[in-house]
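Lecture 7 notes: from sequence to structure.

We start with a single chain of 458 residues. Read the sequence below before looking at the structure.
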Amino acid sequence: MGDTHVPMLGNGQIEEKIPPVVKAVKKRWLILIMYIVYATISTFQWVEYSIITNIVMRYYDVSASAVEWTAVIFMVMWPILVFPASFIIDRMGLRTAALIGCLATAIGAAIKVFSIGQNLFFVVMIGQTIVAVSQIFILSLPPKIAVTWFKANEVSTVCSLGIFGMQLGSALGFLVPPMLVRNHENLDDIGTDLYKMCWGLTAVITPVSFLVFFYFQERPKYSPSQAQIDERDNKEEVTLSVFLSSLKSLLKNKPFLIHTTSYGFCYGIFSAIGTLMNPYILNYFEGAEEDAGRMGLVMILIGIAGSILTGFILDKTHKFKESAFVIFLLCSISSAALLFTLELRSKWLVYVAISVFGFFLNAYMPAGIEFATELTFPSAESTVTGILLATSQILAVIFTLSLSAINKKFGTFWALSIQSLILLVGTILTGLTPNVLKRQEAFGRDVQFEKVPLNEKA
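Now the structure, written as tokens:
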């Protein structure tokens, strides 16, 4: 840890080395809250158009596939830009990533204010593309914020709270657009509703951008854990060759690659069902646009509880693989139950089934990210999460476009049946992933520090 020589005083006596201070500062909660807020605003924009597909089709006179691309573009940008973005994050740090993510979200939202006009759908796509780029600098940050600012016994919980921002944004994206943008007879009235939605987003993200610019720090003055002290002492400057070397080692990590595939199956289905919620529900319940939005909301809100509960359980038990496997299995079972209730055409049963499905689908997100971090420690968290989500987004595009085509040609029954099968395959892959807990071995040294009164002071 740092220099190993023994400092000497002028009279030949050995100078006692002052141990480093391990201290978690109160400002860590402000950093987390700022992140949650702008992550919420960014992920809101993922489904803001696709959840009202039929209305957007009428207003802009475009196909359902064109509207689906307002969500699919988020998945496409990841594999294209994830490695350059990961290099920027690793080289320039947490604050730079936060600024790029927040400011790009604000710019994308502002551009869509000028998309109101029946021949201006291309402006919608420009704004969506910029917001999609912002998410590459946003979604990979929760584990990095957690280990940089928080104590070892808070990391999994904080990672879950960071993911909470993404889930909350998705939930609001399902809820608000169907309430705000109505299927009016007059197309100009639809345009007015869209204008209000775009201006509202811009008004909310602007002050948040100023807060991030002035108050979001790179790291705290004191390290919150012994593992972080070791990392600061031994930190190597991130050059392109260092980054590529780290990337190469990750791509040779077989347990990580297996887990990345299984995580991609779960996240890909999450993205697909979010994008296709509107046509899925309308195929069973005619004129139920608002129900589709509310069902998506319930799926995410109940899922938030599952996500936070998972983080708490992981901090207490450190059963990362076991938790991921059980949650994945229950995802597959609850997906099949959702299909069964839709076939019964009972709305209240669909609400119940989609709540259970959402609970486990969202609960897997923090479990999967934390397990990946365990398998790859001490690799940079942003790079690990970037690879994880890049694979997920590629699979999300494949699943969304494939399930959309199946839904249109063969019906929702077959689309959801294949969805359940994909989740079952992901469960099997999770069971085959070796259980390697590298980070826990490093964090085991932090236990002694948590017992020192000084270190508990904020």
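The mean pLDDT is 83. Keep this in mind for problem set 3.
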